[in-house]
């Protein structure tokens, strides 16, 4: 019997279009002999839709027109199963669709940060990737960096602030930036795909950079820029129980860091975007044995301390002069699901998707053996007394 797998993508995020590209790549890779694939699209207005038109990348050129040809749907639990049904019933009714598990392919806010995962956990619907906590700490760079520091995982010097704190404390933050040393990198705490990231070489540029970052997030990270920068990435497939590392890539950029435009837009303008798979890179990266071993060791350590799972990508910064390695961040749901880092190890995109399904099922089995509720009901001894109540002792 086939497994009904809902692939959820889109979302109310500045990475909406990136999610569409990644999701359609993932769906294309899935074995339809094993799975009934149900595309579930979350619009920029947080409305949920399904329909076969979602499988056509050309349809996304006009989102308003696309949505008109889709069915608005909702999820609900009935007994032991979770169903998807149409919001508006058709003339002869619509039959609810059983959803066995979900593979979220949503980047950024509301999809990668634990919001969607919490909703699925509440429904009791198995899903692939990091759980609510793992997703949340993997998305918030401030919390992430605190965990790294506590776990002795090497990161660059940094500090953070809320956007509302800046106006009345400018000199304090200028002093902190000068203390860690210019140039610095300024970024929103909860976004990916290099959105809102700016370099600053002095206080005036720091001012502008903070204002840019504050357009995207209330929490802002300021960190020391690595000189002689080499950016390398490694993917981890699995969870804290069992995982493996991919080959390591080194990404190249015309800018000081890999921009959103380089990651997604350059080829998209010609209609040939393959997401992160189209970015300029060297695979495998030209690292000596010691550096490669360090990157792999740290990749596994990051997954452990953050409690991550699924297929993630850990981004590193290496000082090309000193060979110091710093963890930059984890992408718990990376663009294109990092499939291009697994191909050299003879792990196909289809095998990655199989692994994600297996992880979702395995986690559900583990959770089913845990105690989350008690059968007793203390409210059975509760007596109403007007607007107040009292326990019967």
Task: Characterise this structure.
- The chain is 31% helix and 27% strand.
- It is globular.
- It has a 7-stranded mixed beta sheet, with helices on both faces. It has a 5-stranded antiparallel beta sheet with strand order 14-13-12-15-16.
- The protein is α+β, with helices and mostly antiparallel strands.
- The chain folds into 3 domains: 3-127, Rossmann fold (3-Layer(aba) Sandwich), CATH 3.40.50; 157-224, Dna Ligase, domain 1, CATH 3.30.1490.20; 229-364, ATP-grasp fold, B domain (D-amino Acid Aminotransferase, Chain A, domain 1, 2-Layer Sandwich), CATH 3.30.470.
- It starts with a strand and ends with a strand.
- The chain contains 11 helices and 18 strands.
List the helices and strands and how they pair.
Elements: E1 3-10, H1 16-29, E2 35-42, E3 48-50, H2 63-68, E4 71-78, E5 81-86, E6 97-99, E7 101-105, H3 115-123, H4 132-139, H5 141-150, E8 158-162, H6 163-166, H7 170-180, E9 184-188, E10 198-200, H8 203-214, E11 219-224, E12 229-238, E13 243-251, H9 260-268, E14 281-282, H10 289-306, E15 310-319, E16 325-331, H11 349-368, E17 382-385, E18 388-391
Parallel strand pairs: 1-2, 1-7
Antiparallel strand pairs: 2-3, 3-4, 4-5, 5-6, 8-11, 9-10, 9-11, 12-13, 12-15, 13-14, 15-16, 17-18
């Amino acid at each position: 019997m086939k497994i009904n797998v809902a692939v959820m993508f889109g979302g109310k995020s500045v990475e909406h279009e990136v999610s569409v590209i990644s999701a359609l790549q993932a769906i294309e890779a899935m074995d339809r002999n094993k799975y009934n694939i149900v595309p579930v699209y979350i619009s920029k207005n947080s409305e949920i839709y399904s329909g076969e038109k979602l499988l056509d990348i050309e349809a996304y050129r006009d989102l308003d027109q696309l949505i008109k040809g889709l069915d608005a749907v909702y999820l609900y639990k009935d007994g032991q199963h979770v169903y998807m049904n149409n919001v508006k019933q058709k003339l002869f009714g619509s039959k609810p669709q059983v959803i066995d598990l979900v593979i979220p392919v949503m980047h950024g806010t509301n999809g990668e940060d634990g919001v969607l995962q919490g909703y699925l956990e509440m429904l009791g619907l198995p899903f692939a990737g990091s759980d609510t906590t793992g997703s949340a700490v993997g998305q918030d760079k401030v919390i992430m960096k605190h965990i790294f520091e506590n776990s002795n995982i090497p990161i660059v010097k940094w500090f953070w602030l809320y956007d509302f704190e800046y106006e009345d404390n400018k000199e304090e933050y200028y002093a902190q930036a000068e203390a860690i040393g210019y140039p610095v990198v300024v970024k929103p705490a909860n976004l990916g795909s290099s959105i809102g990231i700016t370099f600053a070489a002095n206080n005036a540029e720091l001012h502008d950079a903070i204002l840019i970052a504050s357009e995207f997030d209330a929490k802002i990270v300021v960190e020391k820029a690595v000189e002689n920068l080499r950016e390398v990435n490694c993917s981890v497939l699995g969870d804290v129980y069992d995982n493996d590392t991919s080959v390591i890539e080194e990404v190249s950029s015309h800018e000081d860091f890999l921009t959103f435009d380089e990651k997604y837009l350059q080829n998209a303008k010609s209609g040939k975007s393959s997401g992160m798979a189209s970015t300029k890179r060297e695979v495998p990266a030209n690292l000596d044995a010691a550096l490669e071993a360090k990157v792999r060791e740290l990749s596994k350590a990051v997954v452990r301390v953050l409690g991550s799972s699924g297929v993630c990508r850990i981004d590193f910064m290496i000082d090309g002069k000193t060979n110091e390695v710093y963890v930059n961040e984890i992408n718990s749901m990376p663009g294109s699901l990092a499939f291009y880092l697994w191909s050299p190890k003879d792990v196909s995109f289809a095998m990655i998707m199989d692994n994600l399904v297996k992880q979702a099922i395995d986690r559900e089995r583990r959770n089913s053996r845990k105690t989350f509720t008690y059968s007793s009901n203390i409210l059975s001894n509760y007596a109403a007394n007007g607007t107040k109540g009292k326990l019967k002792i």
